[in-house]
Amino acid sequence: MANTEYDTEALRERFARAVKGERERRGLSQSELAELVDVSVDHISKIERQVYQPSFDMAARFIVALGLDANVIIQAKPTKRHATRKRLDMEAELTRYVERLDEPTLDLMIDFTELMEKRLRGTRR
Questions:
Q1: Of 77, 96, 114, 125, whose CB has the highest number of CB atoms within 10 Å?
Q2: Which of the listed CATH numbers 1.10.10.10, 3.40.50.10860, 1.10.260.40, 3.30.360.10 matches domain 1-80?
């Protein structure tokens, strides 16, 4: 098995942002979310403020209850030490947007992205 380093602090930040962001997007109060995942409001607050790191089982309850994408949270790849918080937020937002697209629209987005990448590479020479 490869020895791959992961940044657990960044993971905790992504999880907290994902939970709070999705809770707010759905218009849920901390109390309503606490009821959904069967924890105290204090737990919700501490998780969102990154004071408390949930157990694997508790994190799974949040992921299921809120329909979060665990791959986005975990980022099943080594840590990007140079990635800024803003970049991680933007990648997560883009992933959530792309997940809602139907296949023809997604195909169009891929074509557009490839075209833009080629144009940008051409202007950098």
A1: 96
A2: 1.10.260.40
